[in-house]
User: Fold this.
Amino acid sequence: MLADALQQSGLQPFHLPMGIRLNEALRHKSPCIRCETCDGFPCLVNAKSDAHIMCVNPALEHSNVTLVTNAKVTKLETDASGRTVTRVIAERNGQTETFSGDIVVVSASAINSSVLLLKSVNEKHPEGLANSSGVVGRHYMAHHNTAFIALSGVPNETVFQKTLGINDFYLSNNEWGYPMGHIQMLGKSTHDLLKAEVGAPAPRFTYDWIAKHAIDFWLTSEDLPHPDNRVTLNRDGEITLDYKVTNGEAHKQLVQKLKDVLHKIHCNDKVCYCNNHIFPDKLFLDRAIPLAGVAHQCGTVRFGNDPQTSALDINCKAHDLDNLYVVDASFFVSSGAVNPSLTIMANALRVGDHRCPVLTHGRPRAMARRTNTARSMKSRLRKLSLRRDWCSKAKFMTWVASCTRMFQDSRDVTGSRL
Ligand SMILES: Cc1cc2nc3c(=O)[nH]c(=O)nc-3n(C[C@H](O)[C@H](O)[C@H](O)COP(=O)(O)OP(=O)(O)OC[C@H]3O[C@@H](n4cnc5c(N)ncnc54)[C@H](O)[C@@H]3O)c2cc1C
Ligand code: SF4
Assistant:
């Protein structure tokens, strides 16, 4: 198999941690049916461990939780002092509605959270809410990503392909003195996906053949924070994204590295679909994800200790306000080179614990005492249905290293330890 071949070439491929509710031992009890359209698609049988399944639905079981749908928040208003958000203005079904609460948590992701703050200008906050530092909207990051297809000489019959990761080039090494990034498998290409992506007319059998022989990879390199990579609003209030590539050479090296590795590998397993030479024709297609690919957006409302250089304090509360939190991908000060969701989730749990005594008027104090240690994060991630065997120590430590790095970067930015 590909994993064996990669191992034989000296790499250490590992199983990706996946948030899907698959019971391999008792398949008849498994919510996940291992279908062909997992990656990038909603799950039609509710088997993904996503926010909807793991958090929103269980929360709605409580009588004191209300979910308001179809509402677009357009502005946050403050009291005369500018320290407290008093009204949340939303458009809903063509009407304006207002909401209020002791605590307001913005969680619209990096672009829309910064946009909401920038739109919420008032006398006390002329540059936008929580923006006395001027950093709101700045340091936009979204990873350098490439979708990479290697065309195998024989058909690839894999149904569920997003299972392997390679971190051998994550840190600097002797070959190239800088980190290159992370490689993982991607959901399997299909005729329709390829056609939509390429957009060019071609005979059906062309896309069919490519889809059948494709082995798909996703390559991620770190996007470095730059103040001029920025979300702003133009005169008409439309969102503008200014962006210059920050770490392009690392990503180029990573793409080349994967090509080199795949050129070399052989598979001696006679039952393996890939025969003796996995990629006999050395056919590779790679496409860098363009600016519009904002899936991994982060960094526009950064946290830190210093109100001069960050919008949020280390608990993700706005430095400039007493009751406003921003809890989503925008708090990142660096992006690492792995998928962002686990870090976003871990931080949300951490901030939730910090707010717990206030939100619950002091009842579950034991929860508030829980610390932000690797152990508690690990156990909570398990509760989020990450399968135990996929959450092995090595993989978990990779994730912890990425979190630790981010916290260290924050310390570097702010000049003091978090
Ligand atoms: C196709 C795709 C595949 C991905 N695959 C992976 C993966 O495999 N692993 C991984 O780790 N990450 C993956 N990601 C990235 C991951 O989904 C994001 O990093 C993560 O969801 C960001 O979380 P968030 O809380 O910042 O924002 P989101 O999850 O985007 O939540 C923001 C919410 O705010 C709402 N909103 C926005 N503006 C407003 C407003 N003005 N008023 C009211 N509501 C508003 C949005 O509708 C949305 O529900 C993928 C992303 C995409 C698009
Ligand atoms: S979409 Fe993913 S989680 Fe849902 S059944 Fe298919 S493979 Fe399983």
Remarks:
- The domain at 68-140+297-414 is CATH 3.50.50.60 (FAD/NAD(P)-binding domain).
- The mean pLDDT is 84.
- The pocket of flavin-adenine dinucleotide (ligand 1) is lined by residues 40, 72-73, 107-109, 112, 116, 295-296, 328-329, 339-341, 344 (CB under 6 Å).
